[in-house]
Amino acid sequence: MSETSKFTEDILTNARGKADSIIREAETETKRASDEAKITISREVEAVIRNARADADAVKRRQVSEARHRSKLREQQEKDRIMRDVLDQTKKCISDIVRDDAKYIPLLTSLIETGIRELGSKSATIHLNEADLERVKTANLDQRISKGLDEIRVEWSKEPIAALGGAIISSSDGMIRIVNTLDQRLEALESKLLIEAGKSLFGE
What we know:
Blueprint (H helix, E strand, L loop, with lengths): L2 H97 L1 H19 L3 E5 L2 H9 L2 H8 L4 E4 L9 E5 L6 E5 H21 L2
Parallel strand pairs: 1-2
Antiparallel strand pairs: 1-3, 3-4
C-alpha cells in the first residue's frame, strides 16, 4: 500500500472512530434526555391524576353534602307541615267548641267573668265577635254574668271584634284592656303546644 493510501486510510479510520464516538454520545444523550422526559412526563401524569382524584373527591364530598342538606331541608319542611297541621287541628277543635253552645257558653261566661275580675273596676265594657253579640240575647249572657258578679256594671259594646271567640274586657274609658279571646289563649299556648307536639311526634 502506498504512503498516500495508508495516510488516507488512517484519516478515514480516525474519522470513523470520531463519528462512532459522536454517534454513541448522541445516542447516550438522546437516551438520557428520553429517560428524563419519561420521568418528567410520568411525574406530570401522576400530578394530573392526583389533582383529578382530589377534584373528584371534592365534587363527591360537595354532592354528598348537598344531598344531605336537601334531605335535611325536606325533612324540616315535612316537620313544619305536620306542626302546621297540629295547629290547624287545634283551631278546628276550638271552632267546633264555639259552634257547640253547651260547651262554649260556659267557657265564654268564664272568660268574661275572669276578665272583669282582673280589670278590678266597678264598671266594664265587654267586646265580643259578631256571633257572640247575638248570644248576648239568645243565651242570656247578661243574666249569666250578672249572677256571677255583684255590684259591677256591665256594658256590651255594639262594635264586633275580630276573634274566634272569647272577649275583650275594657274599662269604661278604654284605658285598660283585658284580652281574653280564644285567639289570645291559642297564641299564648302555641309555643308550648309546638314544643310538646315536637317531643311527642319527633322526640325533639
